[in-house]
Amino acid sequence: MRQHWFVATFGLAVTALIASPPVRAASYEADIRPILERYCFDCHSGDRAEAGITLDTYKESRAKTHERKAWVKVLRQLEGRAMPPDDAEQPTREEAAAVQRWITAYALVPDCSKGERPGRVTVRRLNREEYNNTVRDLFGIDARPADDFPSDEIGYGFDTIGDVLSIPPVLLDHYIDAAEAVARAVIASTDADAAPTRRIEGGRLNSTGQFVREIEIAEEGNYVLRVMAWGDQAGPDPCRMMIGVDGKPRRKAEVSNGPGAPLEYDVKLRLDRGKHQFAVAFLNDFYDKAEKDPKKRDRNLAIDRVTLAGPVGILPAALPASHTRFFSKPLDPKADLSEQTEAFKSLLEPVASRAFRRPATSDELDGLAAIFFAARREGETVERSAQLAISALLVSPSFLLRFEGDPPPGRIRTLNDYELAARLSYFLWSSLPDDELFRAAARGEVHTPEQLAAQASRMLRDPKAEALVKNFAGQWLQLRGLDEVRPDPKRFPGFDADLRASFRRETEEFFSYIVREDRSMLEFLDADYTFVNERLARHYGLADVKGAEFRRVSLDRQKRGGLLGQASILTVTSNATRTSPVKRGKWILENLFASPPPDPPPNVPELDGDNAKLVGTLRQRMEQHRADPSCASCHKLMDPLGFGLENYDAVGAWREREGDAAVDAGGELPDGRRFQGPAELREILTARKDEFRRCLVEKLLTYGLGRGLEYYDACAVERIASASASGGDRFSVIVAEIVKSPAFRQRESGADIK
Asked: Quick one: average pLDDT of 42-57?
């Protein structure tokens, strides 16, 4: 999961090569392994190697490939002076520098002589956001059926990863229910389920008898009476029920189901205008006082509810726009069924092709049309038959899954225009291709790098690119975690749901502005503006902002700037009662520089208010926590960064004091650099723009491809990052270089490449 560490350090490798004087190329076996053996093998060898780093097994031949991730971790620990731990024997400055030079000059310099490998993406289903957006854009309806689906699994920080987007059995039932709901929303029906419904009060019959209800019918027509019934079963026979209308029996039924499992009993009726009586009778009462089990002693009939649906067979006067679009050429219900089916198939073809993100095959269309034909033959209306066919389309694997053909074993193939159009649209819009992109694919105009870049430029300007804000930024910046944060209301009485929503909206507006205006991605680190409404401005102490509308405002650079001055980030990285320098430092390392610290060792208690062994201010307690050598290695990297944000409380408000003490927002980094407060911290972080650039490239590439990055992706990441720097770090440049890359345009078989 942390294979992305190599990307952040590749730039360090290049910098080190440029800045350092020529030295003899180090030999791993002769120069590096002996140093590691002396200082590191005690903890990092054998089956119980700490952090899974088994240095005793590593080989120079694998350093650039399968062991690259491990060398990145080693380099990070050496740079942060976190390893070896303080209580262990320490290498000399020269020995540590020699290991670092070998890692940066050899292990982390990828071999790009054979070009970039594309990798292989696992076939994946639509995630919840993609399902909702696809249904919206396919039919033009305002529905979010996937909101009721189980939550999507996350891989490599995103819910677009093929390896985790499987289809558990519980999801199949949701797909069926969603397909039916969508089909009914798209096409107006004339069946009983779509007709106006009135509820009639039910009742319980404990002895032979009946209950009668009277209803006024205003419109002559066909109706369906539905009785939901169950019985207390006793004796040798099941409950027997009679349903009558206007004094005449209409249906006799055995009600053999028990409590908690009511079944539906329908009666189709033709009713005139006027008053009508509806009756339900219990026909076979039974009681056996000698029965030992009291639950089997008394037979009774229970009517949960009675509904009358109708009139049936009449379309509403105002048809949904989606209905009108689908039936652009009305079907004649009196025509021969074969003629109706052929006409229906011609209406369905463009919808099915859009739904499958490629031209639907004749076999697929014949199968869907056969469902329509069978339903019509059984007496269903044209509209209901069409609904059933559309439901089948929506549970088809071609709709639910994003398929891409594999090349022969050991080979690479360029994706076809339809596959590339789908990759592009789900990357930027989390939805299917629009008409323009689909038509371009049909003309064969989506497969060249230039064509892909041109389409990406157009699509970034489209309002649907807001999906990048919600789904990419929401996960990269962990904005989705805001919903789970519960600040202590006693300590932060001004925090409420509206302020939470404003926090999220600020960051979304900020991200959207950078994408829409094609600004430099370095503004994420230190922009001198943000977006606020009156409520959020008051929280920040900004004057002259009125109303609920968000607008761009300038900032005091000493207090706020970039993402790290925004309350969404500051709140999601805090605890309920206080700030968390650890969480904030970890967030910076992981999300801005792709260098998350290692997981804490087992059995190390968290720093929290219940740890009675730690006393004093938060900084003092942190120092006590770090005194444990097993904790120090992580905290040396995280804590100074987090303390630089201490001027912001747990909900992002500016503060000069914490209780009776002045806030200390200073820190010292492992390399000896010092800073005081968030403004100076931002200067230091902005100086690491090369690392941030590679981090953002890596995050976008992972999100867009739908797979984790591998060692061979380092060449692509470095090339894209270099192009971004040359292009003014504009967001569109990064996107264009991603979609032009072999990783985006091509696909491996999964076998060894020849």
From this structure: 85
**How much is the average pLDDT of 569-585?**
96
The domain boundary residue, chosen from 294, 312, 330? 312
With 0-12 / 13-18 / 19 or more C-beta atoms within 10 angstroms meaning exposed / middle / buried, residue 648 is buried
Question: Tens digit of pLDDT for each residue in 227-273?
Answer: 999 999 999 999 999 999 999 999 999 999 988 888 999 999 999 99
Sheet-wide strand order for 239-245 = 209-217, 274-282, 239-245, 248-255
Identify the domain boundary among 107, 134, 157.
Answer: 107
Strands in 86-148 per DSSP E: 124-125
At residue 154, φ and ψ (nearest 5 deg) are -110, 135
Block residue for tokens 């890596």? 698
Residue type, 650: A
What is the average pLDDT value for the chain, to the nearest integer? 89
Q: In sequence order, which residues have a C-beta less than 8 Å from that of residue 35 and are 6 or more positions away?
A: 91, 95, 98, 99
Indicate whether 64 and 204 sit together in one domain: no
Q: Indicate the pLDDT class of residue 427, thresholds 50, 70 and 90.
A: very high
The residues pairing with 722 across neighbouring beta strands, listed in sequence order, are none
pLDDT at 616 over 60: no
The tens digit of pLDDT for each residue in 78-126 reads 876 777 877 788 888 888 888 888 988 888 888 888 889 999 999 999 9
- The token duo for 68 is 């690259």
H helix or E strand, kind and range, residue 241 = strand 239-245
Which helix (H) or strand (E) segment holds residue 250: the answer is strand 248-255
Handedness of CA 701, 705, 706, 707 (dihedral sign): negative
Dist. CA 747–CA 577, nearest whole Å: 49
Q: How many CA atoms lie within 13 A of 536 on its CB side?
A: 26
For residue 518, give the amino acid letter: D
Distances (CA, A) of 707 to 125, 157, 187, 405, 710: 13, 10, 37, 17, 9
Same domain, yes or no: 96 and 202: no
Residue 19 has pLDDT above 60, yes or no: no
Task: Identify whether the C-beta of residue 637 lies closer than 8 Å to the C-beta of residue 585.
Answer: yes
Q: Which pLDDT score, from 0 to 100, does residue 112 have?
A: 87
Q: Is the pLDDT of residue 1 over 60?
A: no
Question: Angle CA(329)–CA(334)–CA(336) in degrees, nearest 5?
Answer: 90
CB 344 within 8 A of CB 386: yes
Is 519 a member of any domain? Answer: yes
Give me the domain span that covers residue 68: 5-107
Q: Are strands 274-282 and 286-287 parallel, antiparallel or unpaired?
A: unpaired
Report yes or no: 82 and 636 within 8 Å, Cβ to Cβ: yes
In a domain, 413, yes or no: no
**Is pLDDT above 70 for 612?**
no
Measured CA to CA in angstroms, residue 233 lies from 204, 226, 263, 569, 732 at distances of 14, 22, 14, 60, 70
- Residues with Cβ < 8 Å from 470, sequence gap 6 or more? 129, 430, 508
